[in-house]
């Protein structure tokens, strides 16, 4: 078998037109994908303020502290506006306040759980938006969760068949167990292309290595599916705004399990 | 003088008998289809990898653009900046006031159904915290196709009534779960005193906060949707919460 493959490769090496056809077929799909899904969206992504040219001058840094203060005040105002907008609902929502170092679960504006951020990372898209004041526009209204998945199940439910009689019921009753504590990695996709990764601070155990591999595979698959779906609808996939937070295992579990499928997020990155 | 050895492929070609020329051309045709097809397949796999890595690649390009191109700053007058800052300060103060305005010093209860813990607080200090029991997430399927999921609801609730020495009116699932025949709606065997502890706080839709005779199960998800507390905890919650007090469950 190996010698057969080797001889076929030799044939390919010698037959130049065949080699050219092979290479063209091999390159055409990745090239098109790269151009339409990576290069054009990334270059078309606008982060400069949309102002007439006369009002814009380049500067190495944001410049004066007054401007920096204004930018942070704009962010604070849009964040508070977002928190206020969530206060009218009974559902469990999230407030991610990175400068304060916490991720909170809130119900009707009341904080029911405060999770300290043990790590926080953002992608360069966030920095690009920050420079263009686009961040305050993004965070001025709550972002709605659209999709999520994790290495743990959302609701650890069990199915129980009704016993036939009292004897069977007594035999079936056993000591209840607490919900199992597993390694938690979850990702939540919100509107406006925001992706929130939640990781646990504890080192991952080997026991859950398979779940972790499946999770990463599913994440990559979803990203690919999302980009392909955008292309199918004649639009280019938007650059994702990625945030990653590290929490304790208990906090990460609580955040994933407590929030509903369409929960909202108020954000101050 | 010996001739140099021929390459393997040429050697093989020479060994092919004259009669199999047709087969040879068939193999060539197969190659012209197979190699481009294999190339396209490899290309598709690479495309899928690029799609999966698209966010990281895009991020890299955006980062490169950020490094190469310095940010643009709006040129405005100092008066404009002062005006904008004043407006923002007013907006922030107004929003902060509206967020804190809804809070009062009334005690409220937070029930954590993930870890089965409760926290009685007034916003400034914890009045009492401890273990509780919440819904088991068991889906009970009866033989007559009916089913119940024992889940504690999430969100904000209000204490509707407070009851001392409550009597439990057993719903149908209690009989189904015990393997007993379901009695009529107001049958005497449906009413069981003592099992809900000394107090109960009704939250509506059949859900309540009550005591339990199964104290050893506190901290575990074992209930049928209600929240169970230990005797002393229940006493403190009953004493501090009044009708209209808020209960937040997550």
Description of the molecule:
The complex is a heterodimer of chains A (269) and B (250). Chain A has a domain at 65-155 and 181-268: Beta Barrel (L,D-transpeptidase catalytic domain-like), CATH 2.40.440. Chain A is built from eight helices and eleven strands. Chain A has helices at residues 2-14, 16-44, 65-86, 124-131, 134-138, 166-172, 209-232, 249-258; strands at residues 56-58, 92-97, 102-107, 110-116, 119-122, 143-150, 158-161, 185-190, 194-200, 241-247, 264-268. In chain A, a hairpin with a 3-residue loop joins strand 8 (185-190) and strand 9 (194-200). The longest helix of chain A is centred in the first third of the chain and has 29 residues, at 16-44. The termini of chain A are far apart. Mean pLDDT of chain A is 82; it is low at 47-61. By secondary structure, chain B is an alpha+beta fold. Chain B folds into two domains: 26-69; 108-249, L,D-transpeptidase catalytic domain-like, CATH 2.40.440. Chain B is built from five helices and 14 strands. In chain B, the strands form three sheets. Chain B has a nine-stranded mixed sheet, covered by helices on one side. Chain B has a two-stranded antiparallel ribbon with strand order 5-6. A two-stranded antiparallel ribbon of chain B has the order 9-10. Chain B starts with 7 loop residues before the first helix and ends with a strand. The mean pLDDT of chain B is 84. Chains A and B meet through helix 1, helix 2, strand 1, helix 3 and strand 4 of A and helix 1, helix 2, strand 1, helix 3 and strand 2 of B.
């Amino acid at each position: 078998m190996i010698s057969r493959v080797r001889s076929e490769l030799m044939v390919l090496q010698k037959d130049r037109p065949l080699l050219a056809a092979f290479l063209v077929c091999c390159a055409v799909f990745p090239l098109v994908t790269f151009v339409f899904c990576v290069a054009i969206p990334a270059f078309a992504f606008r982060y400069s303020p949309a102002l007439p040219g006369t009002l814009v001058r380049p500067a190495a840094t944001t410049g004066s502290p007054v401007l920096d203060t204004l930018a942070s005040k704009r962010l604070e105002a849009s964040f508070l506006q977002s928190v206020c907008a969530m206060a009218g609902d009974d559902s469990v929502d999230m407030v991610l306040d990175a400068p304060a170092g916490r991720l909170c679960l809130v119900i009707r504006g009341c904080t029911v759980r405060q999770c300290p951020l043990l790590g926080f990372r953002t992608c360069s898209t966030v920095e690009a938006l920050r420079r263009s004041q686009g961040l305050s526009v993004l965070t001025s209204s709550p972002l709605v969760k659209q999709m999520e998945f994790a290495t743990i199940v959302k609701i650890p439910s069990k199915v129980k068949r009704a016993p036939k009689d009292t004897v069977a019921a007594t035999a079936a009753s056993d000591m209840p167990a607490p919900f199992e504590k597993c390694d938690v990695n979850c990702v939540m996709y919100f509107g406006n292309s925001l992706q929130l990764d939640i990781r646990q601070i504890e080192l991952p155990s080997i026991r859950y290595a398979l779940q972790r591999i499946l999770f990463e595979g599913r994440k990559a698959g979803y990203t690919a599916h999302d980009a392909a779906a955008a292309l199918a609808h004649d639009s280019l996939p938007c650059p994702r705004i990625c945030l990653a937070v590290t929490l304790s295992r208990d906090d990460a579990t609580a955040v994933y399990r407590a929030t509903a499928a369409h929960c909202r997020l108020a954000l101050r990155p | 003088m010996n001739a140099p050895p021929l390459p393997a492929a040429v050697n093989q070609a020479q060994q092919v008998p004259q009669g199999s020329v047709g087969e040879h051309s068939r193999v060539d045709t197969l190659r012209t289809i197979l190699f481009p097809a294999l190339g396209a397949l490899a290309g598709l796999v690479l495309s899928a990898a690029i799609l999966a890595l698209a966010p990281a690649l895009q991020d890299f390009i955006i980062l490169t653009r950020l490094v190469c191109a310095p940010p643009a700053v709006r040129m405005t007058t100092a008066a404009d900046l002062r005006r904008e800052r004043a407006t923002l300060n007013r907006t922030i103060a107004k929003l902060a006031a509206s967020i804190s305005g809804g809070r009062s010093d009334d005690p409220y209860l937070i029930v954590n159904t993930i870890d089965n813990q409760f926290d009685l607080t007034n916003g400034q200090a914890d009045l009492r915290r401890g273990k509780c029991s919440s819904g088991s997430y068991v889906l009970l399927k009866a033989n007559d196709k009916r089913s119940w999921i024992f889940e504690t609801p999430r969100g904000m609730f209000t204490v509707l009534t407070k009851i001392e020495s409550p009597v439990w009116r057993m719903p149908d699932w209690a009989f189904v779960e015990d393997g007993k025949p379901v009695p009529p709606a107001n049958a005497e065997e449906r009413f069981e005193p003592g099992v809900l502890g000394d107090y109960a706080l009704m939250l509506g839709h059949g859900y309540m906060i009550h005591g339990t005779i199964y104290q050893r199960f506190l901290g575990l998800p074992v209930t049928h949707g209600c929240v169970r507390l230990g005797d002393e905890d229940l006493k403190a919650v009953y004493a501090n919460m009044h009708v209209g007090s808020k209960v937040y469950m997550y």
